[in-house]
Amino acid sequence: MKCLVVDDDPLTCDLVENYLxxxxxxxxxxxxxxxxxxxHLLAAETFDAVFLDLQLPGIDGVSLLKALPRNTSVVIVxxxxxxxxxxYQFDVVDYLIKPLEFSRFxxxxxxxxxxxxxxxxPQEEALFLKDNATxxxxxxxxxxxxxxxxxxxxFIFEAEKPVMTLMTLSxxxxxxxxxxxxxxxSYIVNLRAIRxxxxxxLDLGMTKLPIGKSYRDDLHEKLKIIN
Length: 227
Description:
The chain has seven helices and 15 strands. The protein is an alpha/beta fold. The strands form four sheets. A five-stranded parallel beta sheet has the order 2-1-3-4-5. It has a five-stranded antiparallel beta sheet with strand order 10-9-8-12-11. The protein starts with a strand and ends with a helix.
């Protein structure tokens, strides 16, 4: 595995490299201390994993994250937990809080290694659903959430007409990728659509949805929310 560590703290860079060497399976590890250098490296070379700090001189970590090539596997390494929920809009692999502990770091590397087969056989990015005599293609990248309406489910998009199908949320959640989470007995939400959480409500921009009490802990775990 080829790794790039981007952190303005040389001690953190050395610690990440040391942890990677202890875990093994690393071809090499490059360390840089600013976003500009990292961006040039990423444009010239492909890395299996990027360990990215958010507080960087010049190009900050958030700006770098937005500029990374699609399908780059990123683990955030930060002293700040505030970006935790928003980071998953960029499909980050994990979000680690400094100071780094080896056991927690090892779990993040395991996630990285488990993701590798998905790149060879990518997870389905669309569903085909039947509505009476019509079969609809549901583009999961544009899907905001799914709402239960009795035995039917309504698929809600930001700028497209909703699509309904005869299926329960319990069945649907087994067919969807892991970035879709049951947040209420009436809703399944695309984690990448969440802008922020306000009390017991999810802000998706165009609408706000309630968070069911029995689903809250699972949602926080999926978002890696730090209390």
